[in-house]
Structures are given as structure tokens and as C-alpha cells.
Specification:
By secondary structure, this protein is of the alpha+beta class. The chain has a single domain, classed as Aminopeptidase (3-Layer(aba) Sandwich). Helix content is 21%, strand content 37%. It contains 3 helices and 7 strands, in the order βαβββαβαββ. A 7-stranded mixed β-sheet has the order 1-2-3-4-5-7-6, sandwiched between helices. The protein is globular, with a radius of gyration of 16 Å. Bound molecules: coenzyme A. The site of coenzyme A (COA) has 18 residues, from β4, α2 and α3. Coenzyme A binds next to β4, α2 and α3.
């Protein structure tokens, strides 16, 4: 499997996750990353995140199944203008967390999260933050199970496809959640 060794980490996982490898994204993965149908803007966002991964500013992780291919993903950002999200040394921020609908509620999201947290511990990050839309209660519950708690609210930009040649943007209020990694 291309790129499987780079960034891959062996962990003791339940058998439901057998055959799933967590690894860093390679360029050939970009068209296969998960997004809603017709969400062209996300393709631009993935390319931009991949470019910043090459500069060492972000990391893109995927969960890959032996036959189904990419079934989950998330992106972690080390630095941000909003230091309450990421500050480059102690605090990192993850976003674009998604599992293929047919693979949800089988532990893939949790596997990705645990992998991310362990990788960040090894890099010396003490805090991990995220934002979750206030109406996304299922995701918030999952984060709480993993030890994240709400520390504030955050305005987040939601992009959508072009209308009359212009990218549409909307600001939404979301929970900011945080977990102490060590
Ligand atoms: C949020 C998301 C990434 C979670 O991924 P996932 O693979 O479904 O996550 P998990 O399977 O690890 O956990 C989800 C739930 O399934 C449960 N679960 C895990 N394995 C299970 C199994 N084998 N059988 C039944 N339930 C299971 C977990 O306990 C968890 O329950 P909870 O919601 O009550 O805490 C996924 O739902 C998704 O892509 N959502 C759309 C995008 C999104 O909202 N992203 C988050 C943005 S902030």
C-alpha cells in the first residue's frame, strides 16, 4: 500500500479495526479524501492543507482499509492566528474529521483520534483543541467520551461552493473543546 509505512503507528486495537491502517496523506490520496457530494471547495481546502503539510505546518491523516480504501480522515494544524486553537508548541488544533458514512459507529473515528493524540504527545503537544458546530451533538458526545470538554465558543468559517463565480462563506458559532494530552 503506498505510503503506509510513513507515519504509521502500531497500536493494540480491537479486531473490528483489523486491516485498517492510519497513515499520513500522500499526494495521490487527495482526490480520494472524503467530502460531501459536490463540495468542490473542500478539494481546494485539501490541496491547501497538503501544501502546508509540506511546509511542516499541518498533518493530514487517513484511515485506510485494505479493500475499501480511505474510510476516514482528519487534519491537524500546529499553528494558528487564533492562539486559543493552536500555538505551535503546546497546543494543536484538528479539523475536517470525517468517516465514510458506511464505516461510522464502528470505532474508526475513535481509532483516528487516539492515533492523533498519541502522535501529538510524542511531538510534545500538551493540549488538543477542536471546534464543533453547536447542532452536531453526536460529534460532541464522541469528543466528551474521549475526554474533551467545552472551554468556550468560537466563530468558524464555513465555506461552500461558488455562486455566481464567488466562493460562499458563512460564519457560525461553534463550541471550542479541548483535551489535556499529558
Ligand atoms: C464524527 C465522526 C467522524 C465519528 O466517526 P465514527 O467512526 O462514527 O466514530 P466511532 O465509531 O469511533 O464512535 C461513534 C459512536 O459509535 C460508537 N461505536 C463505536 N464502535 C461501535 C460499534 N462497534 N458498535 C456500535 N457502536 C459503536 C461509539 O461508542 C460512539 O458512540 P457515541 O457517539 O455515543 O460516543 C463521524 O460520525 C462523521 O464523519 N460525521 C460527519 C462529519 C462530522 O460531523 N465530523 C465532526 C466535525 S466536528
Amino acid at each position: 500500500m503506498p505510503g503506509c509505512s510513513k507515519g504509521a503507528m502500531a497500536m493494540d486495537e480491537p479486531s473490528a479495526l483489523d486491516g485498517i491502517v492510519i497513515r499520513q496523506v500522500v499526494e495521490d490520496d487527495l482526490p480520494h479524501l472524503l467530502c460531501e457530494e459536490n463540495a468542490v471547495y473542500l478539494r481546494f481546502m485539501f490541496q491547501s492543507a497538503f501544501d502546508s503539510m509540506r511546509r511542516g505546518e499541518q498533518l493530514l491523516w487517513v484511515a485506510e482499509h485494505a479493500t475499501d480504501g480511505i474510510i476516514g480522515q482528519l487534519i491537524v494544524q500546529f499553528n494558528s492566528m487564533r492562539v486559543q486553537l493552536a500555538d505551535g508548541t503546546r497546543r494543536a488544533y484538528f479539523y475536517s474529521f470525517r468517516v465514510h458514512p458506511q464505516w461510522r459507529r464502528r470505532g474508526v473515528g475513535s481509532y483516528l483520534l487516539r492515533h492523533l493524540e498519541e502522535d501529538l504527545r510524542q511531538r510534545g503537544f500538551r493540549l488538543l483543541t477542536l471546534t464543533v458546530e453547536k447542532n452536531n451533538e453526536a460529534a460532541r458526545r464522541l469528543y466528551e467520551r474521549h475526554g474533551y470538554h467545552v472551554v468556550g465558543t468560537e466563530m468558524v468559517n464555513r465555506h461552500s461552493n461558488k455562486v455566481n463565480g464567488r466562493w460562499q462563506e458563512a460564519e457560525e458559532l461553534a463550541w471550542r473543546m479541548e483535551k489535556q494530552l499529558f
